[in-house]
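ingest -> validate -> predict -> emit
validate: passed (alphabet ok, no gaps, 221 aa)
predict: started
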Amino acid sequence: MADELKVFRTWSSPFGLRIIWALQLKGLDYETILEDLSQKSPLLLQYNPTYKKIPVLVHNGKPISESLVILEYIEDTWKQNPLLPEDPHERAMARFWAKFVDDKLFESVFDVLVTGGKEQEEVVLRVMENLKYIEEELKGKKFFGGATIGFTDIALGWTANLLGIIEEVTGIKFIDAEKFPQISQWILNFCDVPVIEANWPPRDKLVIKIQTIREKYITSK
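emit:
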């Protein structure tokens, strides 16, 4: 019996995009269900009653939630084109950096988007500090795991597109080749992979969405 895979996500979510990348890198067939989070579907609430959010992967009727957890599940279930190295320490470090991306980098970048003035200036410093850690970890490698895209690359992948859009919306420059040559080259390498390039959301539409998010938070303060 063939595996039945369904991915519940939104068109714009970088977390849902992680799952699409991983499934396609593994060569797996799946069905995408695009959610409107202002009117969450009964199925989404059924499959993720605890958090009530995307992404959710449903494998033969069994749901898995949270993007990094889903990536681990995909890696454990389908061994082809591995996303994690065999060495236990290297596997642990890949997980560490993926969690760093979510807990530190993403949070600080989002805070830049929704703040202004002195508060925003302080948050920008946090972003730059977090990017320095990423820069040092790359150490001249093509990808975090070496020659091919892996777990950490997928976790960080949103920066290759979304970070530039946030720069455009806020007018704040985070990455250039002089300050962050390793990250700049990594972005080029990452975007050059067909599976990655083929799945970016429409840029113009995403710019409008990010502008709307910023305006909503700024006007509410």
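The beta strands are 5-9, 31-34, 56-59, 62-65.
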